[in-house]
Amino acid sequence: MTEMTALLCDEPGTLTVVRRPRPQDKPGHLRLAIQAIGICGTDYHIYGGNQPFLQYPRVMGHELSARAMADSADGRIKTGDLVVVNPYLTCGTCRACEIGKPNCCENIAVLGVHTDGGMCEEIVVPEANLIPAGDLSPKAAAMVEFLAIGAHGVRRSGVSGGTALIVGAGPIGVGAALFAAIAGASVTLRDTSPDRLRLAQEIVQSAQIELVSEASDTVYDTLFDATGNIGAMNAGLNYLAHGGNYVLLSVVKGDLSFADPEFHKRETTLFASRNALDVDFQHVMDCMAKGLVPVDKIATHSTSIDGAVSDLPKWAADRGTVVKAIIEVAA
User: What 3-state DSSP class applies to 260?
Assistant: First the structure.
């Protein structure tokens, strides 16, 4: 067969299932049969027309699990093996790549955002971007990438105990809370949505849960912002203990604004955290294999490529009841 099925976002607010040519083989790349796709906040933004610098039409999808359709050249992957896809396509030559930080490559392109992604039957991806999934299920493997973003922020913060506040109980915040707890922190989750907090508490059962309206004067050793709200990001310093670390997982248009005396008297360390590295992907997978990640509680919704035409818009309008929705392409 020369064609495959794909879910296309033709323009903001319009999704269609189409037949399109299968991708061509490329040197150094491996052909994959997509198994499962996690729907990310970025995908909802693309559908809603809120993703900057995006060209339509676009095949979305960067949270991917897939099966290899051939052996890899380096022998790591055999035909039929399940793999996790690292969706960050990097140049390998900029300064960030040279110093081992391809997650913030100057010329990065993300599958499903800057180029067509995995909401389809087949994709061709650089072999270096594939991680053997071992005994993980396709559904679990499709959740590794988004969880790795929170895990990356936790690793950058150096948290190994103490108290941690995660502001924003969406998927990224839940991931950060989960891995902060695994790292040994006493975790508090704060959000404006009781529904999001209820779902988050089921996943991170040891976490303290607070509505923003119930915020107290308590300060925390480490603070992770996952709100995507510039007001919350600017206010975060107020909840940080002296000597604490402030980690920005979310990114928005706008200017960060802290009172310099407050920032200095706390001797605050401020971290931006972008994407994830292979070590973070592997940490997530190791924790999944040990049963430390409640995969079934995180995957709250599922659909098919055909079903996503109606389901994705519905979930985009009611994200307070969705942690992670999965498009299942194959068993």
Answer: helix
